[in-house]
Write a structure and sequence with these properties.
mainly alpha, 17 helices, single chain, disordered N terminus, globular
Length: 447
């Protein structure tokens, strides 16, 4: 079929239905429902994890007369957590879903039978001090629940759109604002097979994210810290150089963990059985926690607030130890079969890197130094410039650093853009598997 003539060119129309005002209004109803339910499921899991956290780190050691920050108690709790997670992954139907090391934030729906096991290992990891965040598992849970629920109510909403709304809603709930979801989805909506402008395609994800963030605000939660330092203020030219040094150094530090990631993953999974390699992961995490102390445990959000509350209390040597221990803990936790995301620990690493940069470069204002540290590490691990900029500004609670960060992000992006991502690819998995399959592998293949 001949194309349009050169004299009267016609714009190409994207495949798929056009997003009319009526369609957007009608689909806003399931978008709001998905947003509210996604935030409630996140909050429910957080509350259960908080209750277990209180038992493991307050009630139980107190009843035994043991200090909760004792190196031996830290080692014991993380070791037991590794064994418990390994048992669930091995024995519970669905094996707690796919290895989080192989998944990104976007998730395909899982069978509902998988979700209880995934929720259990997420709660165990959050409460037990494992250095992973909730983002990957909770997105997988919410996507699966949303697709199953909406499919029962209406066949007219495509499953792909339902999944996108659940992802957006969960991101909005995790960060307490739809802005993060808007930034993430700006790069994703190009894949949506529907007509309309960018904001037409963003409309429904933003409705879901807004509903999720408002629900989070109402039930408690959110993201951010009360930074104690003064606002950055007016940009200074020399700060561009110093800030770029901090951001690039932080990104390079993150890349060290990224390149070690497949090697460590291969080493743990050489044991082949989930109980063995996850229990060993718990032992290693316990040893790291005993060295780094309580501040190097958990997903890192509350610990970031602790660092920012008294930034002058941490000498450069102490910050260096914290950085090394936390990076090792993140790589081990992500490699050893635990279920969780990598963005929240990356934020903690960025805060510590920024404080170290501010201590070594006293001419750089501390708010900008911390923002640059967060920018660099999150950029390397999340590989998303918008998310890195958003998180950096949100954590220091200082919008005056944004003009500087928009320039500083450019050399940091050049450093990471061609590096490997913090993800175990199918090619990595192929290199891990020996020719002879063990019984566990046959069971997995049959499943």
């Amino acid at each position: 079929m001949p194309g349009p003539s050169a004299a009267s060119p016609e714009p190409a129309t994207p495949p798929g239905p056009q997003l009319t005002v009526r369609t957007l209004l009608l689909l806003s109803i399931p978008a709001i429902l998905i947003g509210v339910l996604s935030a409630l499921s996140l909050r429910l899991l957080d509350l259960i994890a908080d209750q277990l956290d209180g038992v493991l780190w307050t009630s139980l050691p107190g009843s035994l007369g043991i200090a909760s920050d004792s190196p031996w108690w830290i080692f014991a709790v993380l070791t037991v957590t590794g064994i418990a997670v390994g048992l669930v992954v091995w024995l519970v139907p669905g094996h707690a879903g796919p290895d989080s090391a192989t998944t990104e934030l976007a998730s395909t729906p899982l069978p509902l039978s998988v979700l209880p096991g995934l929720a259990i290992v997420l709660i165990l990891g959050l409460a037990g001090g494992v250095s992973l965040g909730p983002e990957n598992p909770i997105i997988a849970i919410n996507v699966s629940l949303a697709v199953a629920l909406v499919a029962r109510l209406s066949k007219a909403v495509p499953a792909q759109l339902i999944g996108a709304l659940a992802i957006s809603a969960t991101i909005g709930a995790l960060f307490g604002t739809p802005v993060a979801a808007a930034l993430v989805f700006t790069g994703m909506v190009g894949e949506f097979k529907m007509g309309g402008s960018l904001w037409d395609k963003l409309f429904l994800p933003l409705v879901a994210a807004g509903a999720g963030s408002v629900t989070t605000f109402l039930v408690g939660g959110g993201f951010g810290a009360d930074a104690p330092f003064d606002p950055y203020g007016a940009p200074q030219p020399f700060d561009l150089l110093l800030g770029a040094v901090v951001a690039c150094a932080a990104a390079a530090f993150g890349l060290i963990g990224i390149y070690l990631f497949p090697l460590v993953h291969r080493a743990f999974h050489a044991l082949r059985h989930p109980l063995l390699f996850t229990a060993l992961g718990g032992v290693v995490l316990g040893a790291l926690g005993a060295i780094g102390g309580p501040i190097t445990l958990f997903k890192g959000l509350e610990q970031s607030e602790q660092l920012l509350a008294d930034p002058g209390d941490y000498a450069p040597g102490e910050l260096t130890v914290i950085l090394l221990v936390k990076l090792a803990a993140l790589v081990v936790a992500a490699s050893a079969g635990f279920r969780g995301g990598r963005i929240f620990p990356a934020v903690f690493l960025g805060v510590a890197a920024g404080l170290l940069g501010g201590a070594l470069l006293p001419g750089l204002p501390l708010s900008l130094a911390v923002a640059c540290g967060i920018l660099g590490v999150v950029l390397a691990i999340a590989r998303d410039g918008w998310v890195a900029l958003f998180v950096a500004v949100a954590l220091v609670d200082d919008v005056t650093v944004l003009p500087m960060l928009c320039i500083i992000v450019l050399p940091a992006w050049l450093l990471v853009t061609k590096a490997r991502e913090m993800l175990i690819t199918p090619a990595d998995l192929a290199r891990e598997r020996p020719p002879a399959a063990l019984p566990w592998d046959r069971a997995e293949s049959a499943r």
